[in-house]
Fold this sequence. Notes:
This protein is an alpha/beta fold. It has helices spanning 2-20, 25-38, 65-68, 74-79, 81-93, 95-100, 105-115, 130-134, 162-172, 197-209, 227-234, 261-265, and strands at residues 42-46, 122-124, 141-143, 146-153, 159-160, 184-188, 212-216, 238-242, 255-257. The protein contains 12 helices and 9 strands.
Amino acid sequence: MLQLAQKQISKTKAKREAALIASDLRSGVERLGDMIAEAKRIVPFTGAGISTECGIPDFRSPGGIWTRYRPIEFGEFVASQDARDESWRRRFAMEEIFAAARPGRGHRALASLYRAGKIPAVITQNIDNLHQVSGFAAEHVIELHGNTTYARCIGCGQAYQLDWVKRRFIEDGAPNCTVCDEPVKTATISFGQMMPEEEMQRATALSRACDLFIAIGSSLVVWPAAGFPMMAKNAGARLVIINREPTEQDDIADLVIRHDIGETLGPFVGN
């Protein structure tokens, strides 16, 4: 009897997975289009996968920066001038990559839906500023992990342009703030650093108020950010996951599309 029940559960789960995972790109795009048309308030949640077609590497995937360099944790950055120097050396080594990047089809599709009034704001794990460049107002981009296109003092919060940091770095290593003399770092959230409270609160409110939540290009393994899709689903929203690789939250999604993000969202550019 128990074995029969287990078999039935397995069959039900298999049918459920077959129903929610798009069998091909065309059917996935069609189903996504229907869901977008029916939704009144869409919240996108973007990870590194949306920016890879723009030339920005996924830090965590094989060949990514974290497979080549040990991450510098926040406490180490604060305590060590050598760590701060190395952190800035790595950032300036990637300067051409970030400077050359332009919004991809995924960014442009979301910007089109934003202009159409379907999307109130975007929640992103990315630090590349491409949502702003694509057409989102800065106040409507909720950056959970910060922004690498400028710098901030970790003490008083004074903002600095990267050109200023680079000049000081070349002259005398990683600089300190001219206001309070605390270290200056990219305006990103490092390992071991507290998540930004205001951004987390805004992301929570958006997730709970939407009727369609679309997770795009995220492995959904970095917490607490990975909790937002589940939060939206529990609040009654439909959940779509667009990612080449399976995620741990696929089984609660209403639609999973395991195809290229640019090809999946490209049809919605300009709509």
